[in-house]
Amino acid sequence: MLAKNTDQIKELALKLFEINAFKFGDFKMKVGINSPVYFDLRVIVSYPDVMQTVSDLLVAHIKELQLNAKHVCGVPYTALPLATIVSVQQSTPMLVRRKEAKAYGTKKLIEGIYQAGDTCLIVEDVVTSGSSVLDTVRDLQSEGIVVTDAIVVVDREQGGAGNIAKHGVRMHSLFTLSFLLNTLHEAGRVEKATVDAVAKYIAAVQINSDGSFIGGGDKRNPSEANEFSRTKLSYESRANLAKSSIAKRLFNLMATKQTNLCLAADLTKSDEILAIADKCGPYICLLKTHVDIVEDFSESFVSNLQALATRHNFLIMEDRKFVDIGNTVSLQYSKGVYKISNWADLVTAHTLPGRSIVQGLKAALDGDDAVKERGVFLLAEMSSSGNLIDDKYKENSNKIATEGSNVDFVAGIVCQSANCFSFPGLLQLTPGIKIDESVDKLGQQYQSPENAVKERGADIGVVGRGILQATNVEQAAINYRDRLWAAYTDRIAK
Ligand SMILES: O=c1ccn([C@@H]2O[C@H](COP(=O)(O)O)[C@@H](O)[C@H]2O)c(=O)[nH]1
User: Fold this and answer.
1) Among protein residues, the one whose CA lies closest to atom 4 of ligand 1
2) Which of 273, 287, 381, 383 maximizes ligand 1 atoms within 8 Å of its Cβ, making it the mutation to test the pocket?
3) What domains lie within the chain, and their CATH numbers?
4) What are phi and psi of 29, to 5 degrees?
5) Where does 114-243 have alpha helices with state H?
6) Span 226-239, mean pLDDT?
7) CA-to-CA distance for 464 and 374, rounded, in angstroms?
8) For this structure, is 490 an active site residue?
9) Closest Cα partner for 208 from 137, 158, 138, 151?
10) Fewer beta carbons below 10 Å: N end or C end of the chain?
């Protein structure tokens, strides 16, 4: 890294974290190992300002290092747009490497005009073992092109630079993983413990270009290599990793109040809801409503509920399960009889309409400060038997939740299984909890608090009729609070 651009590079590092191009979690890497950190620079194409900064820095770096090759070539695919901008900015002709040779026509692997003996600079986004850079080097060399240097945005410091050097190619990076972590720490975005844990992982997991481990052994065991598995981290440390302000607030509230119980207040009279909120308020982190079942809804009902939320320190979630085009959802959230955005800290939404559902909800709020006060939980799974959700739907819901433009507003995911998502800054809300595991007559399936938290990854357990139908609702809330909380403390202690 060159000292001249340090401030700009630091700013870029913070921006990459902000747009979720860099994240903490438990990620499966190309080489088959789990990693606590992941770079997804594919997202930067959606941020022209970030593209501009990255390519400006690459060009400045190339000039300073005097890497005067005749061509530039991006490693497919993420680095292709970066290589294109570098090529245009420097007026250096580009070469394009195909991943597979064409089955027809020229059958070329390298597109562009070149001659044997020409030099070429490689552009890459992220280097782990260096194998992708080396694949590109090999194909260029097979055409007689000379490669002596590669410029990359991020060096994960896991052996890539050394592996590439063994093939006679010098690797230069805009920044390293350690630099990025220290920058995030200096800016107060991550704790020192996080920096140390990742440093430990990097030191332990050094990779050869064929995917084997430098020094031998098998580091694929996540408990040895990765301390960032979402279900192993405390709510306090996950608060630091959360990108949504309300998720941070909820994690901290749960940790200080020592409760991960959400009460589903599915009652039809406002007085009944207020009475149960008052009785159970001291034991819950969240109170969930279905406001459209309340027969005597009024503005005073919501203001009284908000007063109870302040008195007992819980948040309010309207389980509206929005599912429509962005414009309609925006109106449903903020207008009509209920004006949900005025009083519900959190809402729920299906991902069926696609990413526009999140944008629609955000559009109803008045600016960035209002967005910070609110959040959404996206439904990726349901507890009802025979529901139509499949693995692809789950995976795509997770993608929507972690996309850069959504991360400030998506606080969590409603789901039933621990493998639904890995980003530790999101909360898993799991409904369908009852001490006597059973089913109801209309398709609801229940599991015990212990199973929900320890086996299925629930961070917050939702209990409705298990409390509402108890003879002593306050005592029932205490029982569920105690069992859910004990299951969580057991989970992180193991
Ligand atoms: O998959 C889902 C999503 C939401 N819910 C809601 O949770 C409560 C559960 O109430 P119980 O009385 O404990 O069954 C209810 O408000 C549902 O709308 C869910 O059950 N499953």
Assistant:
1) 431
2) 383
3) 3-228 (3.40.50.2020), 232-493 (3.20.20.70)
4) -95, 165
5) 131-141, 160-165, 177-186, 192-204, 222-225, 235-241
6) 83
7) 23
8) no
9) 158
10) C
Task: Give the nearest ligand 1 atom to 434 CA.
Answer: 13
| Ligand 1 contact via 464 beta carbon (within 6 Å) | yes
Structure tokens at 58: 């690459």
Q: Give the predicted TM-score (pTM) of the model.
A: 0.78
Residue 319 a catalytic site member: yes
Burial label, 203 (beta-carbon count in 10 A; 0-12, 13-18, 19+): exposed
- Distances from the Cα of 191 to the Cα of 184, 188, 492, angstroms: 9, 7, 18
Nearest Cα neighbor of 143 from 122, 120, 168, 116 is 116
Q: Considering 125, 319, 408, 459, which one is annotated as catalytic?
A: 319
Cis peptide before 77 (omega within 30 of 0): yes
**H or E stretch at 34:** strand 34-39
Query: Ligand 1 test: best mutation among 276, 289, 319, 397, most atoms within 8 Å of CB?
Result: 319
pLDDT digits (tens, 9 = 90+) for 234-256: 999 899 888 899 999 999 999 99
pLDDT of residue 194: 83
Here the ipTM equals 0.96
**Residue type present at position 426:** L
C-alpha distance from residue 487 to each of 386, 453, 484 (Å): 28, 6, 5
Asked if 147 and 141 count as a contact pair (C-beta separation under 8 A), the reply is yes
Q: How far apart are CA 95 and CA 113, in angstroms?
A: 8
Sole residue written with tokens 């690797």: 171
For the Cβ of 445 lying below 6 angstroms from any atom of ligand 1, the answer is no
Among residues 324, 339, 372, 482, the one annotated as catalytic is 324
235-239-241-243 Cα dihedral, nearest 10 degrees:
130
Name which residue sits closest to atom 10 of ligand 1, judged by CA. 464
**pLDDT category of residue 219 using cuts at 50, 70 and 90:** low
The reply to whether 321 belongs to the active site is yes
465 lines ligand 1 (CB under 6 A): yes
Q: Can you list the positions of beta strands (E) in 205-296?
A: 261-264, 286-289
288 is in an annotated binding site: yes
